[in-house]
Amino acid sequence: MSKLWTAPEDDPRVFGQPVGEKATYREYLDNYRLTIEMKCDGLDAERLGRRSVPPSTLSLLGLVRHLAQMENHWFQRVLQGRTDAPCLYQHEDDPDWDFGGAVPDHAVVKEAFATWKAEIAKADEWLDALEEADLGREVPVDGGSHGTRDVLLHVIEEYARHAGHADLLRECIDGRTGL
Questions:
Q1: CA 54 – CA 58 distance, rounded (Å)
Q2: First to last CA, the chain
């Protein structure tokens, strides 16, 4: 029998009745972020860095690094145009350094989670200041443009896909499934 994360009545995620489009995006985004955190909870560096199936470099630690990179890219670089800092977890010799550099080391784990949390905090600060009317605003991207709404939906979609990966990774580590 598989072990559930938590009893449904103890689930820390909020599934309410958000009012408005922005509030709906925030609820989904916050819940997916928390889901990833829950999937990583209680694991040591070795387990967080455990790769899925060779030759894949996919691991929970790699997902955390990738999601930090994704938060930084979309919220800082694209939505706010802050392109002066180097991209997170980019290495000229490895285009997938977010995953490739996710080695099972306590310092790497500590840095990855701190970076992810810092990127979330910066994104949340920007989202808190965003007016609902600005969801339709276009932002320049690679010679074209994307709507703010589309970027937010893409970020939610990215978390949803990787939450599914995290489900499978965690189940392989210790059998935990569910919430």
A1: 9
A2: 15
Give the SS3 label for residue 124. Answer: helix
DSSP state of 89: T
Query: 136-157: string of b/e by CB count within 10 Å (b at 16+)?
Result: eeebeeeeeebebbebbeebbe
pLDDT score at 70? 98
The phi-psi region of residue 14 (left if phi > 0; otherwise alpha if psi is between -120 and 50; otherwise beta) is beta
Whether pTM > 0.85 for this model: the answer is: yes
User: Residue holding tokens 């808190």?
Assistant: 128
CA atoms of 119 and 149, how far apart (whole Å) = 19
Tokens of 54: 């060779």
Per-residue model confidence (pLDDT) at position 16: 81
Residue 78: its pLDDT value, please? Answer: 95
* Structure tokens belonging to residue 127: 């989202």
Query: Tokens standing for 153?
Result: 């939906």
Per-residue pLDDT, 177: 80
The answer to whether 83 and 72 have CB atoms below 8 angstroms apart is no
Task: Evaluate whether 50 touches 174 at the Cβ level (below 8 Å).
Answer: no
Residue numbers in the chain where pLDDT is lower than 50: 1-2
